[in-house]
Amino acid sequence: SGELGDGTTTDRHQPQAVAGGLRFQGVSAGSNATCGITPAGLVYCWGNNFYGQIGDGTTNNRLTPTATVGGLVFLRVNTAGTHACGVTSASRTYCWGSNYTGMLGDGTTRDRRRPTRVVGG
């Protein structure tokens, strides 16, 4: 699904650079998508986006790193199978992607295509 971020859907048996020349201070790989956080705190994701787990406001698969929308600055990001979550520099948690069992923490079971704040502080 493009979760290697090299612009292809080709399986790789050796390390391959992620396309785009971005530098990441942390990377989290789920089963369908991967997210990385830059030194500036911006989150980029790539791979399968069926549930919006890339966080770019669409459900289009992405073969290269694509910025999440919203202009948020994150300290950490973690990618699960069909969703991702991050903690911002303001200590707020946001999640995006599949929400069929309420795992995004926004009080709904509606999938989110962009980072959505977890309720309850």
Description of the structure:
The protein has about 120 residues and is mostly beta strands. Helix content is about 0%, strand content about 35%. It has no helices and 8 strands. The protein has strands spanning about 25-30, 35, 45, 60-65, 75-80, 85-90, 95, 110-115. A 4-stranded antiparallel sheet has the order 1-2-3-4, with no helix packed on it. The protein has a 4-stranded antiparallel sheet with strand order 5-6-7-8, with no helix packed on it. The N and C termini lie far apart (about 35 Å). The relative contact order is 0.19. The model has no long low-confidence stretch (mean pLDDT about 95).
What's the structural blueprint in terms of helices and strands?
Layout: E1 26-29, E2 33-37, E3 43-47, E4 62-67, E5 74-79, E6 83-88, E7 93-97, E8 112-117
Antiparallel strand pairs: 1-2, 2-3, 3-4, 5-6, 6-7, 7-8
Characteristic terms for this protein:
mainly beta, 4-stranded antiparallel beta sheet
Principal-axis shape equals globular
Distance between the termini: 34 Å
Based on CA atoms alone, the radius of gyration comes out at: 13 Å
Which strand order do you get reading across the main beta sheet? 1-2-3-4
Low-confidence spans: pLDDT under 50, at least 5 residues?
none
Q: What is the number of E strands? A: 8
Helix content: under 10%
What is the number of helices? Answer: 0
Would you kindly provide a brief summary of this structure?
With 121 residues, the chain is mainly beta. It has strands at 26-29, 33-37, 43-47, 62-67, 74-79, 83-88, 93-97, 112-117. It is built from no helices and 8 strands.
